[in-house]
Q: What sequence folds into this?
């Protein structure tokens, strides 16, 4: 079960890829069910569970916990949230470490000395990602005695620039407000369809940090705008989950978290920004990533 359409988000496509890879690797029989609107996936569960499938993989946006609770005898993989149910293996993604690296990178390439962030909704996960981005900017400022300004997040009051929904018009207004305030590197968090934002950023000659999938590959027509992306490697996580459950190495009821260390999350390549990013800054990012993976560096946003 995964969403479809322009606003479905890149993670839905990665879920399909992961299931397809599992099918190719082990010969599993797979049935695909696209869901046009969220969380309409629950409407399909009676039919799917009655069909006798060993496993149902669902994007978190397509079903609710109540939907899953109705079918305790069915094994599920839920991608993107923790169901907290004994018959569901949950796959989540910790984007704080990639967001920290993105904050450091953004501060390092900013020409205006102003970077910014916004989020679709004020969820705990979105706040954590924004706070980690802020911590990366702070790390850069400390390292280089710089004064790069961050708009869209105030850690002192846990306040940020939130759209409140996936409303495209409201998002556009907020994006223009931030760009008009001098921001030249923008991190949108939890925005399903980033293409209108990419167009706006590209038109102003600014830089954008994508989410879920590599934005440069998703919308290459705005290639110069894509600095990097916070990637959730949902395909890899789904493939590992399906194979792990089939082999008895993973079990329902648990949570598998995608991290830098296990490759479940990461930063996308810099693409057209590779040559525009100083070699010293790229080297610093490599060292910071190694420190995060090895546990030698903790992300502690300033209040």
A:
């Amino acid at each position: 079960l995964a969403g479809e359409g322009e606003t479905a988000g890149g993670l839905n496509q990665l879920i399909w890829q992961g299931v397809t890879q599992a099918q190719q690797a082990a010969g599993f029989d797979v049935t695909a069910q696209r869901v046009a609107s969220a969380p309409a996936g629950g409407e399909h569960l009676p039919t799917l569970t009655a069909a006798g499938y060993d496993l149902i993989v669902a994007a978190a946006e397509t079903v609710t916990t109540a939907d899953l609770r109705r079918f305790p005898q069915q094994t599920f993989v839920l991608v993107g949230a923790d169901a907290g149910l004994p018959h569901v293996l949950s796959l989540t993604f910790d984007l704080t470490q990639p967001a920290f690296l993105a904050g450091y990178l953004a501060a390092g390439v900013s020409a205006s000395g102003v970077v910014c962030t916004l989020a679709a909704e004020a969820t705990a996960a979105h706040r954590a990602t924004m706070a980690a981005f802020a911590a990366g900017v702070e790390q850069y400022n400390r390292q280089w005695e710089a004064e790069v300004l961050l708009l869209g997040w105030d850690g002192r009051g846990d306040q940020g620039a939130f759209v409140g929904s996936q409303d495209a018009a409201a998002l556009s207004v907020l994006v223009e407000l931030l760009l008009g305030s001098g921001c030249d590197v923008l991190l949108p968090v939890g925005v399903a369809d980033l293409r209108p934002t990419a167009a706006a950023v590209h038109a102003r000659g600014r830089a954008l940090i994508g989410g879920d999938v590599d934005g440069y590959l998703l919308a290459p027509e705005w290639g110069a705008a894509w600095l990097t992306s916070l990637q959730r490697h949902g395909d890899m996580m789904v493939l590992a989950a399906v194979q792990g459950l089939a082999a008895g190495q993973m079990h329902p009821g648990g949570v598998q978290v995608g991290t830098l260390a296990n490759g479940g999350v990461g930063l996308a390549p810099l693409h057209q920004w590779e040559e525009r990013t100083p070699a010293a800054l790229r080297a610093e990012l490599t060292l910071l990533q190694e420190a995060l993976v090895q546990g030698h560096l903790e992300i502690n946003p300033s209040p």
